[in-house]
Amino acid sequence: MPRKETLRHLSGLYAATDDPWNHRTSPYEAAKYAATLDAIGPGPFDNALEIGCGNGTLLARLAPRCRRLTGIDCVRAAALAARAAVAGLPHVQVLEGSVPEDLPDLVPDLVLLSEVMYFLTHADIHALCGWLRGTRARVVCVNWLGPTDEELDGQSALDTFRQALGQSGTGQAFGKFRIDMFRLDGTMP
């Protein structure tokens, strides 16, 4: 679960607007989403999970590749915006909750973490990886490479994730962000 001050900060951002990072209009976000979806592949995925789905912009773009898709976010206003973004998609649900405490009772074949890992603590990432080891999922991690105001930055969060998962995965940098993929089904990414 994000630290209390992080949760307050994120809640404050979403209180001011339902799109605090301009997910719907930013060229950076559009390029990141295109690269993310390219890395994920066409699917179909039977049961996908986006952790930290924010206002649902990427969740809505991922939905056509999934038979069932769940998004989860710890900020109530973000979860409400995400529900609105996918309102016409009956195979998509959005939960309000913190990771790893409120992970849903499902066994996903795809897990997406897009620019959220640095909001977690080292202990949270270790607990999340423990949960992930019980799946046979393709895990896609997108991380901002710049500084954050959090305990972790994107690279240190990714390093913690790799160590906790016990896999190095495969990855590629795209300027200000990187995408890494991990396969828990024993196949190569």
Description:
It is a single chain. The chain has 189 residues and is α/β, with parallel strands linked by helices. Strands 3-2-1-4-5-7-6 form a 7-stranded mixed β-sheet, with helices on both faces. Helix 5 packs across helix 6. The mean pLDDT is 92. Strand 4, helix 5 and strand 5 (138-144) form a beta-alpha-beta unit. It has helices spanning 4-16, 27-40, 57-62, 76-85, 122-132, 154-165; strands spanning 48-51, 69-73, 92-96, 110-114, 138-144, 170-174, 177-183. The chain has a single domain (4-183), classed as 3-Layer(aba) Sandwich (Rossmann fold). The protein is built from 6 helices and 7 strands. It starts with a helix and ends in a 6-residue tail after the last strand.
Structural shape: globular
The helix/strand order is HHEHEHEEHEHEE
Number of helices: 6
Class computed from helices, strands and strand pairing: alpha/beta
- CATH arch. level architecture: 3-Layer(aba) Sandwich
Largest sheet strand order: 3-2-1-4-5-7-6
Low-confidence stretches: none
* CA-CA gap between termini: 28 Å
Rounded to the nearest angstrom, the radius of gyration is 15 Å
SS strand fraction: 15-25%
Q: Can you tell me the CATH topology? A: Rossmann fold
Q: Find the count of extended strands (DSSP E, 2+ residues).
A: 7
Mean pLDDT: 92
Main β sheet profile? 7 strands, mixed
Oligomeric state, counting identical vs distinct chains = single chain
Helical content band: 25-40%
